[in-house]
């Protein structure tokens, strides 16, 4: 039997027509997009920029739309970028490790479910901090590098015969993120980050599995060892008192 390729990024091109299927392989990403958007405050003005790192098919767009930002998406998957564009995201093809964007160009940077797909997520986080304006907000969500995250997030989820589960091979536990190092990296780049655990609301999940509901609300929990969200603000040194 051929060996399963892990962190198989080809799935995002191969399954690009399923991005918006509420019972398809990316259903959970839609739930996460809704949760991520709760952390985005309304734009200060019409030229405020939100950069959506590894935007995929642009699932954040309907939630961000009402907040008034210019929504710029970055991804490597050409077919996903096409889908994102068709949903109104200004999508550009680029590697999140090296963003072709100016320093301090964005009021909001979101990096949803992408840090666990690169060998050096801390480099990506440094890039996110670099393009963030002072006073701007960085929002991330990803998987923690724990045994339980590996068992539940890969062994169970990727093999479960249920709707909404990611394809086999999507994840590689060796890329899951060290929470302390994430916080330290942010701090080194001027962003104070706080983490919260996320879990599905159980009744919603049950109704989703019974085909009685399409969306599942994710709710916060104190434990961050599985799926977690981080929200941080970049220090605005212009506001510090002078000597
Ligand atoms: C799990 S999806 C998340 C998509 C989106 N953020 C969401 O939550 O709906 C991961 C995305 O990361 C993209 N990706 C993986 N490696 C990348 C890289 N080095 N640079 C840019 N995008 C990348 C993939 O193409 C895919 O769209």
Main β-sheet description = 8 strands, mixed
User: Which residues form runs of ≥5 with pLDDT under 50?
Assistant: none
Which ligands are bound?
Answer: S-adenosylmethionine
Distance between the first and last residues' Cα: 68 Å
- Could you give me the name of the CATH homologous superfamily of one domain? Vaccinia Virus protein VP39
List the total number of helices.
Answer: 8
CATH level-1 class of one domain: Alpha Beta
What is the C-alpha radius of gyration, as a whole number of Å?
17 Å
Order of helices and strands: HHEHEHEEHEHHEHEE
**How many beta-strand segments?**
8
State the secondary-structure class. Answer: alpha/beta
Mean pLDDT: 95
Question: Remind me, CATH topology of one domain?
Answer: Rossmann fold
Keywords: Methyltransferase, S-adenosyl-L-methionine, Transferase
InterPro entries: Methyltransf_11, SAM-dependent_MTases_sf
Pfam family, one: Methyltransf_11
Protein name: Methyltransferase type 11 domain-containing protein
């Amino acid at each position: 039997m051929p060996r399963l390729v892990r962190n198989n990024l080809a799935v995002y091109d191969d399954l690009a027509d399923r991005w918006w299927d509420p019972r398809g392989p990316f259903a959970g990403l839609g739930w996460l997009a809704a949760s991520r958007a709760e952390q985005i405050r309304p734009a200060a003005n019409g030229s405020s920029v939100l950069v959506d790192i590894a935007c995929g098919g642009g699932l954040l767009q309907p939630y961000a739309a009402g907040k008034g930002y210019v929504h710029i998406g970055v991804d490597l998957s050409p077919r996903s970028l096409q889908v994102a564009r068709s949903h109104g995201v200004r999508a550009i093809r680029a590697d999140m490790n090296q963003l072709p964007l100016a320093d301090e160009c964005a009021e909001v940077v979101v990096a949803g479910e992408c840090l666990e797909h690169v060998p050096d997520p801390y480099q990506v986080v440094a890039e996110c901090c670099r393009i963030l304006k002072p006073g701007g907000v960085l929002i991330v969500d990803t998987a923690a590098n724990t045994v339980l995250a590996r068992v539940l997030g890969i062994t169970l989820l990727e093999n479960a015969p249920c709707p909404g589960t990611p394809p086999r091979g999507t994840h590689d536990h060796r890329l899951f993120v060290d929470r302390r190092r994430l916080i330290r990296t942010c701090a080194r780049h001027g962003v104070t980050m706080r983490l919260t655990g996320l879990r599905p609301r159980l009744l919603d999940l049950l109704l989703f599995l019974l085909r009685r509901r399409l969306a599942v609300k994710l709710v916060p929990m104190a434990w961050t060892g599985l799926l977690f969200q981080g929200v941080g603000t970049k220090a605005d040194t212009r506001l510090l008192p002078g000597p």
